[in-house]
Amino acid sequence: MLAEQIANSLADDIIRGVYAPGQPLIETTIAETFNVSRGPVREALQQLQVEGLVDVQPRRGATVAVLTPQTMKESFDVRAVLYGLIAAEAASKRDAATVKVLHERTDALKASVQEDTDTYFALMFRLNVQFVEAGQNQYARKFLTSLRRLTLPITRKVMRDEGNRASWIADWEAVLAAIERGDSREAEEAARRWIMAVYDKDREIAEDEPPGSPYSAAAGANQTGRQVKLAAGTSKRG
């Protein structure tokens, strides 16, 4: 449990940009921060490695993972399938209480469009979690928890723009409308479009950043061919 708490805290910091891509994660420093031994820290880092947020190399220690274009595309492809499945299941159930909560979460998000990034992003994340719960699929929920974390740092930057926030909400409301109608097929298709629209925005942000920026698409010295690295984070909390 302690290792899981540390892992969740570190994941949150990575998503917020406290730790930048490629930045070393020093076990002793983290242990001192949490006032624990290095054992739970090592377990936490191993857990984050499994989720793709951290790279751990023998004798080199742990560093924040650097997202490549291929990894980002693959993660969104899988997310689109899982979100589509969840939307279809939610539509087939058409649970009135669930739909009511989703509407409430949506209204709260719409009211926060002009708020600071932290406020908006927290509400957006809560809506995402509520939506995933609506599908009542424990395996989809488990996989999506890890997949979302991979790209949340870039998505968070995307959502600093009010226009992108409005587009995200509009795409989501198409999903919600299909769920409310009980139209499983349209709910699935709308959910896939919704997620891939997020992918397009995330990719644009990564590609348009100037060289040297934490979000830039720069040539990867350790990658083959024309593969590039998409750094997903900032050096300070946003």
Kindly describe this structure:
The protein has 9 helices and 5 strands. The protein folds into 2 domains: 2-65, Winged helix-like DNA-binding domain superfamily/Winged helix DNA-binding domain (Arc Repressor Mutant, subunit A, Orthogonal Bundle), CATH 1.10.10; 69-208, GntR ligand-binding domain-like (Four Helix Bundle (Hemerythrin (Met), subunit A), Up-down Bundle), CATH 1.20.120.530. The chain is mostly helical. The two termini are 28 Å apart. It has a 3-stranded antiparallel β-sheet with strand order 1-3-2. Strands 4-5 form a two-stranded antiparallel sheet. Helix 5 runs antiparallel to helix 6.
Topology:
Layout: H1 2-16, E1 24-25, H2 27-34, H3 38-51, E2 54-57, E3 61-64, H4 69-93, H5 96-111, H6 117-134, H7 138-158, H8 162-181, H9 184-208, E4 217-219, E5 228-230
Antiparallel strand pairs: 1-3, 2-3, 4-5
Helix pairs in contact: 1-3, 1-7, 2-3, 4-6, 4-7, 4-8, 4-9, 5-6, 5-8, 6-7, 7-9, 8-9
Shape descriptor reads globular
> How helical, in percent, are the residues?
55-70%
Classification by helices and strands: mainly alpha
How much is the radius of gyration in Å? 18 Å
Domain tally: 2
Mean pLDDT, nearest integer?
85
CATH topology of the largest domain: Four Helix Bundle (Hemerythrin (Met), subunit A)
Total number of helices? 9
CATH superfamily of the largest domain: GntR ligand-binding domain-like
Total DSSP E strands: 5
- Provide the CATH top-level class of the largest domain: Mainly Alpha
Beta-strand percent range: 5-15%
Compute the separation of the termini in Å: 28 Å
Largest sheet: 3 strands, antiparallel
Q: What order do the helices and strands follow?
A: HEHHEEHHHHHHEE
For the largest sheet, list the strands in their spatial order: 1-3-2
What's the architecture of the largest domain in CATH terms?
A: Up-down Bundle
